[in-house]
Fold Beta-lactamase domain protein.
Amino acid sequence: MKLNFLGAAREVTGSCFLVEALNLRFLVDCGMVQGGRTAAARNREPFTFDPASIDFVLLTHAHIDHSGLLPKLTRAGFKGAIYATPATVDLLGVMLPDSAHIQESDAKRSAKRSRGEDALPPLYTLQDARECLQQVRGIEYDREFAPRVGVRARFRDAGHILGSAIIEVWVTEYGYPTKLVFSGDLGQPGRPILRDPTPIEDADILVIESTYGNRQHKDLSATEEEMIGIVEKTLFERGGNVIVPAFAVGRTQEVLYHLHRLTSEGRLRQPKVFVDSPMATEATRITREHLELFDEQAKRLAGWHARGENLPYLHFTESAEESMTLNQIRSGAIIISASGMCDAGRIRHHLRHNLPRKECSVLFSGFQAQGTLGRQLVDGAQRVRIFGDDIPVRAAIHSVDGLSAHADQPALMAWARGFKQAPEQTFVVHGEPSAAQNFAELLQQQLGWQVSVPEHGQVVPWPDFLAIER
């Protein structure tokens, strides 16, 4: 057996792992690289394997850095099934066409700028996305299934976003089963809306994320107090707007949840809240349709995020015209818009209009990958380029890590301690080099595990089971 690290190795995005065994090849995730000047070129590179040779794909969740190259994969010849949880299937029906729309729009802008000379076609089209969705199959949490003879798999709740999964896979080779566990992105336990990540008891091979492997989030009460301070000071003291770059799936719904609860408890004066993302609007509707995945506290408030109950100034924009109208608002508004790392979408327009204004604030609620506009702002850039213009940064920039959908270092360690015995080999992925290395050392020192941080493109052979005792 061989495990190929084709993405998210010593970086956070571009999740893709290839497992090769006897007469068997399958992928876990097939995501886009996000952030940095080389991201677009890397996403266009041919796959390092023949897509037609892949038997099936197991998908951890719907975020584009885990799913965004699936239409490219199917267009290149992959004919097998793509397995995911039912909620992920629903979200893919929104996110992949939206991603295709972005690819087509970017290609048109590129062609216009180059006047047709050497213009690149879209990475994939809306038709490619629709055809890809025909190969997606929904499998409920905790149900074992056999994607192919000699393979069993099971999705377990990862608590990261709606439908996110830890994947357990048993591969039988030479009559011996090997259990692989892919953590996917793990959620922070004790957070609202979704349930905590499911503990896993055993694995031969563990592939675990480390996005926040070297950091600890603020506790929830401190996070909420920080949010209150930012909103109150910006809206009601300085007379500005709060711009919230948020992922359409997950972050938008949790930010709304907090704003609703803080307002209904009288801890926050009634703000005017605008959700300016058609995909976030649709994702919020899908979220409401999967109440069975909510924690008990969120179930009690299940109706508010779709209907705006008890949050009368909540408005979901629909058209591009409505979105442009928001830029005429000078004060008193919280504008939540995608993308969460500010590399595409309507958020860039809102930043362009509000970053130069010292009375405004930008509130980041999620991880910002290296090379993204969001990372530039979090790192303190005084000027940024948006739509070819040089924009001064005078607004206050806040990063509220306590709202992150990712488990922090203590939560990652707590989940790892749930294993009754150490995996034979653990690979730390989905983290920038310092975070991944720090977390790997912690696993070695505190748990005594055999751990490595793989390089991009590294191929790890698993021992020949005919030659070892089990």
The two ends are 16 Å apart (CA to CA).
